[in-house]
Amino acid sequence: MDRPLNDIWGIILAAGSGTRLAEASGGVRKQYLEYKGAPLFWHSARTFSRVAGVKGLVFVFPPDDAKAMEKEVRHFFKVEDLGVEWRVCAGGERRQDSVRNGLGALPRACGGVLVHDSARPFVSAGMISRLIDALNEGARGVIPAVEVTDTIKRVDGDTVAETLDRAVLRGVQTPQAFETALLLEAHERAEAEGWEVTDDASMVERLAEVRAIEGERGNVKITTPEDLARLEEERVT
Ligand code: CTP
Ligand code: MG
Questions:
Q1: Does 144 sit behind a cis peptide bond, omega within 30 degrees of 0 on the bond before it?
Q2: What is the model's pLDDT at position 171?
Q3: Do β-strands 153-156 and 159-163 pair in parallel, antiparallel, or remain unpaired?
Q4: Do the domain assignments include residue 111?
Q5: Measured in angstroms, how far is the CA atom of residue 93 from the centroid of ligand 1?
Q6: What is the CATH number of the domain that holds 14?
Q7: Residue 218 lies in domain
Q8: Best of 17, 173, 228 to mutate for ligand 1, by most ligand atoms within 8 A of CB?
Q9: Is ligand 1 within 6 A of the CB of residue 16?
């Protein structure tokens, strides 16, 4: 089924507190860490804006500095030069609260949405395009997934309980793309029924089929001090 969706927007999540990195980053929230002349969140914004199907971007910042960041994005980063529509909103306590606020900032006409962790600055324009293509071909939810290379075991405390079948396991990334109405419905259900999740597909899977497409190994999430050290090494070379 081919059904080009109306206005596809990206939600750039940058409202986390970066606790696992706080010590190594000197307290700087990781979305603001400088990499090759720009903070991490800005790398994703630039990449999204280069994809033809992306109509606009919602930036979600921590509530205590969303106002200041809106000014910064406008005047310092010159967001208008990206050539897409844009909005800023304040995030929430949990990642899913930030996504919900981001959804609330979308224009009514937005038919498809890509939710992205700004802690993944290496997302490629090609992958964003492939996600949008899958949506336009009729998928209601699409996520990038990569085969796992480690053997994965379930542990109980420090005792191995079970070894899982690696062949059917995938590590999933962002952006995750959905029909906007479906993702909104999933978030409403999550709120009503108290679902706690770490990605959006976990909610949508309960309501509709979600398709997995090939992710990219380079699309890592900067999460731990080791990830930061690798980023810093790259910056000097
Ligand atoms: N995020 C968000 N709002 C939250 C929590 C997370 O917008 N309340 C965003 C982060 O900014 C990040 C992405 O979601 O880009 C993925 O989350 P994660 O890697 O867990 O980042 P943090 O929550 O900031 O880090 P930590 O869990 O170590 O505190
Ligand atoms: Mg987190």
A1: no
A2: 97
A3: antiparallel
A4: yes
A5: 10
A6: 3.90.550.10
A7: 8-141+172-236
A8: 17
A9: yes
Q: Residue 57: CB within 6 Å of ligand 1? A: no
Residue 232: per-residue pLDDT? 84
Domain count, the chain: 1
- Residue whose entry in the numeric block shows the structure tokens 């696992």: 20
**Ligand 1 neighbour 94 (Cβ under 6 A):** yes
Tell me if 110 CB under 6 Å of ligand 1. no
User: What is the model's pLDDT at position 231?
Assistant: 86
- Which among 137, 112, 34 is positioned nearest to 77, based on CA atoms? 34
Which DSSP helix (H) or strand (E) runs through 136? helix 125-136
C-alpha 1 – ligand 1 centre gap (Å): 35
Q: Is residue 131 in some structural domain?
A: yes
In a domain, 156, yes or no: no
pLDDT of the residue at 234: 74
Mean pLDDT in order along the chain per 10 residues (237 residues): 90 96 91 94 98 97 97 96 98 98 98 98 98 97 97 97 96 98 98 97 98 97 92 70
**Alpha-carbon span 227 to 218, nearest angstrom:** 12
Q: What ipTM, to 2 d.p.?
A: 0.99
For residue 15, the CA-to-ligand 2 centroid distance in Å is 9
Question: What's the pLDDT score for residue 237?
Answer: 47
39 lines ligand 1 (CB under 6 A): no
Judge if the upstream peptide bond of residue 175 is cis by omega within 30 degrees of 0: yes
Residue type, 163: T
- Considering the domain boundaries, does residue 124 fall inside one? yes
Residue 233's pLDDT is 83
